[in-house]
Structures are given as structure tokens and as C-alpha cells.
Amino acid sequence: MSDTAPDGEMKALLRALDAQRRHVLGIVDGLDEQALRRPVLPSGWHCLGLVQHLTLDVERFWFRAVVAGDEEIIQGLPSGDEGWNVPPHRSASDVLDAYRREVEIVNALTANGLPEAALAWWPHDLFGEPHLHTLRDVLLHVITETACHAGHLDAARELIDGRRWLVLT
């Protein structure tokens, strides 16, 4: 393997993740506070809660806790579905800005990472024995999870006001 292969792989993985993050922010763009908090599926989640979940339970959890082993983050991890619950007093702009800030932190954290870098911490209490072992594994997992949730946001947005992210004709 050449010396540039990991760097090229990391750039490709980070580009793929960034595309999904842009999708998340793009599909909710233009929705007002009320629409962002409106549940449209029987499960009761809303767009703002999903973005907060991506911030806390995906970006912060997988990168700052699992990849970096940040003890302060690990100790402050929610114990249930708090990530999905946005308090009424927390504005939509606060939630969206928190997502953007977390993305910036994660980008700085992973910018010089190597795909095969070992993880610093594993949540055995949540997942048992590790099934992800490297930064590459976490990136692929987060790309998949973010893409899946971007699709959920697509469906919610279409139910809210008919807007679609990708229209194939």
C-alpha cells in the first residue's frame, strides 16, 4: 500500500460523510420552528429531535467518545433517548447550530486520522463486545446512520410540505 492510500481513503470517507451531513441540513432548511417540531409519523419523532440525535448520539458519541475516548464526553453520555427530546425552550437554531459545531469538532478530530487507527473506548454496556474496531469502521457506520436518518428526514419533509430532496423523473 502506498503512503498516500490512507490519506486518500480518509478524504473519500470524510467527503461521503460530509455529503450526508449537508443532506441533513439541506432537507430541513426553510422549515419554521413549528414544522421542525411537528411529528408526522406514528413514532412521534420530529425533525429537530432527529438532528439533535445526530448531534449527541451519533457525531459526539461515535467520534468524541468512542474514537477519541474523551472522558468528559463519556461521563456525560445520555442514558436513554434524551438525544431525541428537544426541550420546548431550546430553539431550532440552537439545535441546528449545535449540529454544525459538533461537525466542526469532529472534522478537526478526524482530519489527520488514519483509517486503521484503533478506537480509544468501547461502550460494552450498550453493545457488548466490540463490533467496530477502527476509525474506518466508525466512519462507515456514521455515514450509514447519517444517510439513513437523512432518508427519514426526506420522508418527514415530504409529509410536512411536499418538498423532496432528490426528484427522479
Average pLDDT figure: 94
Radius of gyration using CA atoms only: 17 Å
- The sequence of SSEs as H and E is HHHHHHH
Which structural class best describes the helix and strand composition?
A: mainly alpha
The amount of helix comes to 55-70%
Task: Characterize the biggest β-sheet.
Answer: none
Q: Give the tally of β-strands.
A: 0
Q: Unreliable stretches, pLDDT < 50, 5 or more residues?
A: none
Q: Enumerate how many helices there are, as a single number.
A: 7
First-residue to last-residue Cα separation:
42 Å
Beta-strand content bin = under 5%
Q: What general outline do the C-alpha atoms trace?
A: globular
What quaternary form is this? single chain
Structure notes:
The chain has 169 residues and is mainly α. Helices cover 62% and strands 0% of the residues. The chain has seven helices and no strands. Helix 3 runs antiparallel to helix 7 (135-161). The radius of gyration is 17 Å and the shape is globular. The termini are far apart. The model has no long low-confidence stretch (mean pLDDT 94).
Task: Using brief descriptors, characterize the structure shown.
169 residues, 0% strand, mainly alpha
Summarize, please:
By secondary structure, the protein is mostly helical. About 60% of the residues lie in helices and about 0% in strands.
